[in-house]
């Protein structure tokens, strides 16, 4: 199995296979608009702008499971991301990332890259780095700034 075996819904509600991203390095992130880590959108966008032309994608998955920090509709989320952080990388439909209703993609990511203390995703802006073959390489904590992941991304896109 790989991330390419999963289908997700775009922020507009259309089904999209992650197979569309085959051959690209991915940074999959659960996001929220009203979180202390929300300014990381800027760092994620910077990475996307810097490496997007080198087969790199950031995929954002809004989630409202952590203290209701993503209460808005999909449309509101998209507007917020574009207006406040200039986000142009793909943002998908709001989902659950932990518990019995967790989206199958995140169930897979957690299985492939368990956390240090707990397998569960602890908070918004947990990040998963995926190689060009769809393998989960690493999991990064919410407090890990996107910029600090850049050396690993750069190494992957230059292979």
Automatic annotation (TrEMBL):
What molecular function terms (GO) are annotated for this protein?
A: peroxidase activity
InterPro entries from the UniProt entry: Glutathione_peroxidase, GPX_AS, GPX_CS, Thioredoxin-like_sf, Thioredoxin_domain
Domain Thioredoxin: from-to ranges? 1-158
Record bears the keyword Metal-binding: no
Provide a GO biological process annotation: cellular response to oxidative stress
Q: Which UniProt keywords apply?
A: Oxidoreductase, Peroxidase
Report if keyword Oxidoreductase is assigned: yes
Catalytic positions are 35
Per the UniProt entry, the signal peptide is: none
A Pfam family of the record is GSHPx
Q: Which family does it belong to?
A: Belongs to the glutathione peroxidase family.
> What name is this protein filed under?
Glutathione peroxidase
């Amino acid at each position: 199995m790989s991330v390419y075996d999963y289908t997700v819904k775009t922020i507009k509600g259309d089904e999209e296979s992650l197979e569309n991203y085959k051959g690209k390095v991915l940074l999959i992130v659960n996001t929220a608009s009203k979180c202390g880590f929300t300014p990381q959108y800027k760092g994620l966008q910077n990475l996307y702008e810097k490496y997007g032309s080198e087969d790199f994608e950031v995929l954002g998955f809004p989630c409202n499971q952590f203290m209701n920090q993503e209460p808005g509709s999909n449309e509101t989320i998209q507007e917020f991301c574009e207006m406040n952080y200039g986000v142009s990388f793909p943002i998908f439909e709001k989902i659950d990332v932990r518990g019995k209703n967790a989206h199958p993609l995140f169930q897979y990511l957690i299985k492939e890259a368990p956390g240090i203390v707990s397998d569960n995703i602890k908070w918004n802006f947990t990040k998963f780095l995926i190689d060009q073959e769809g393998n989960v390489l690493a999991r990064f904590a919410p407090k890990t700034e996107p910029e600090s992941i850049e050396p690993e991304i750069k190494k992957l896109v230059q292979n």
